[in-house]
């Protein structure tokens, strides 16, 4: 087992108290008794899974007799927990609605030696996991025989045993869910089950190539809609499983096509599915916001804008404080008018001779590269020569033009930079009078910035480097021939 790190989240984790002996909490809150003879006069830690991480919940002191107790007048939030001794000794513990129980631990044989009494659900789930470990060992042995076997009879026998084992897996799961419906156990097991693919089309009479492509498309459409069907995102317990956030991230990062227009509607749908509970709504909305901010996918700032408009800037996200709202508003104001797919604003600036120059009027037949820079910027000093080298291949191609926008007001500095870097083939402009409001229409909060507008002056890509621009040009201009 890999080590699990216990973190601290005081704002979300309610403090509990550990006592050596007091019966006043029985049946009213939480009363978990631990017997661990090998841990006399040591601490046992209770960790809680929440939003894909493991947080410290409480500490239980084991007395000189080997006994410890965790008590509270209020129950622990139902979910999956970890009883933790050190980096090599720990075990998961499902805690449901029954929270008056005892745990006996022999640290020399974890988890097989552990005995749980008092909570049927916690005890039965723990026994289920022990059985699961044993079945997984047997399944690995059968798979090894199938993979390496030379005797066809032995391989057939191993496959038959594996089939029986799979049926036993299903039967054990079904029995536990039936015994504890609507419980933490049922929610936990249900969330682990990925829906089985159901084809939307009959492929029998199709040629092989078309059959394969249609099957791939059907499978994608099915899982884009149903991959997370077994999750109840309006139930707080869902977010207290170790796998919930990982599964959401797998859905967003691996199952869906990695383009902003494919991901955004599904991401918004996840937030909407959580709105049956204010806390769940907060958890999901915060997670998707974090995903949008950290995403490296081109155009994902459109998700940030969508979340801001739907939930944060209109007061729906009641938990968000003024600092968070102000930060979101500032970022959204920077990007709202220059989202990928939106119409790029026509900037009116001046060339080196003082003539008015229109961005639209300087456009290439297929692409316009809009390059914002400052000569003193370190990255601008390396990006500009690379951009000049790139354009040497295309300067005679009317399909692509580069408009280089100097963002400051020192004419001599600008002229020297153009000469030094050999930028004469660019359309070089500046706005010393600040009448174009370029910073309002395009996000230039950091430099350099490269935008690419298409033939209709819509923003095709943005915030890219020169190697990416090179790849786009090779692909798009070649396909245009």
TrEMBL record:
PANTHER family according to UniProt: PROTEIN DIPZ, THIOL:DISULFIDE INTERCHANGE PROTEIN DSBE
Organism: Candidatus Enterocola intestinipullorum
Entry-linked InterPro entries: Thioredoxin-like_fold, Thioredoxin-like_sf, Thioredoxin_domain, Thioredoxin_ResA/DsbE_sf
Residues annotated as signal peptide: 1-20
Keyword Signal listed: yes
Alphabetical list of CDD domains matching this protein: TlpA_like_family
Keywords annotated in UniProt: Signal
Protein name, per record: Redoxin domain-containing protein
One Pfam family linked to the record: Thioredoxin_8
Positions of the Thioredoxin domain: 338-481
Top-level division of the source organism's lineage: Bacteria
């Amino acid at each position: 087992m890999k080590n699990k790190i216990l973190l601290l989240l005081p704002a979300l984790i309610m403090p509990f108290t550990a006592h050596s002996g007091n019966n006043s909490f029985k049946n009213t809150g939480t009363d978990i008794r631990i017997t661990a003879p090998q841990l006399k006069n040591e601490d046992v830690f209770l960790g809680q899974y929440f939003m894909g991480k493991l947080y410290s919940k409480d500490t239980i002191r084991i007395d000189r007799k080997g006994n410890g107790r965790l008590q509270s007048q209020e129950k622990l939030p139902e979910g999956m927990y970890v009883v933790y001794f050190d980096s090599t000794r720990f075990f998961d513990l499902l805690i449901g609605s029954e929270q008056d129980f005892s745990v006996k631990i022999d640290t020399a044989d974890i988890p097989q030696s552990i005995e749980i009494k008092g909570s049927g659900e916690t005890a039965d789930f723990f026994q289920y996991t022990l059985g699961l470990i044993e079945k997984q060992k047997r399944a690995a042995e059968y798979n090894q025989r199938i993979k390496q076997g030379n005797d066809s009879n032995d391989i057939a026998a191993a496959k038959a045993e594996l089939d029986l084992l799979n049926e036993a897996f299903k039967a054990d799961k079904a029995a536990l869910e039936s015994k504890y419906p609507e419980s933490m156990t049922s929610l936990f097991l249900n969330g682990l089950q990925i829906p089985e693919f159901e084809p939307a089309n009959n492929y029998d009479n199709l040629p092989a190539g078309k059959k394969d492509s249609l099957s791939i498309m059907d499978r994608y459409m099915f899982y884009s809609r149903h991959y997370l069907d077994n999750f109840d995102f309006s139930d707080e317990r869902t977010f207290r499983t170790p796998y919930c956030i990982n599964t959401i991230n797998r859905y967003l990062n691996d199952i869906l096509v990695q383009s902003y227009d494919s991901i955004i509607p599904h991401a918004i749908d996840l937030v909407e599915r959580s709105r049956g509970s204010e806390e769940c709504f907060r958890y999901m909305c915060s997670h998707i916001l974090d995903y949008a901010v950290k995403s490296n996918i081109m155009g994902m700032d459109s998700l940030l804008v969508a979340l801001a408009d739907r939930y944060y800037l209109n007061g729906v996200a009641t938990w968000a404080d003024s600092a968070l709202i102000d930060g979101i508003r500032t970022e959204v104001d920077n990007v709202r008018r220059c989202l990928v797919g939106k119409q790029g604003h026509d900037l009116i600036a001046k060339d080196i001779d003082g003539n008015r120059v229109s961005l639209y009027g300087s456009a290439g037949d297929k692409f316009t590269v809009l390059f914002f820079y400052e000569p003193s910027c370190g990255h601008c000093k390396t990006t500009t020569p690379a951009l000049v080298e790139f354009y040497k291949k295309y300067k005679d191609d009317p399909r692509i033009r580069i408009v280089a926008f100097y963002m400051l007001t020192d004419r001599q500095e600008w002229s020297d930079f153009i000469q030094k870097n050999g930028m004469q083939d660019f359309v070089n402009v500046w706005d010393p009078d600040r009448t174009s409001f370029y910073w309002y229409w395009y996000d230039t909060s950091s430099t350099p910035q490269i935008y690419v507008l298409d033939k209709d002056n819509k923003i095709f890509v943005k915030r890219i480097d020169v190697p990416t621009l090179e790849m786009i040009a090779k692909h798009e201009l070649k396909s245009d021939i």
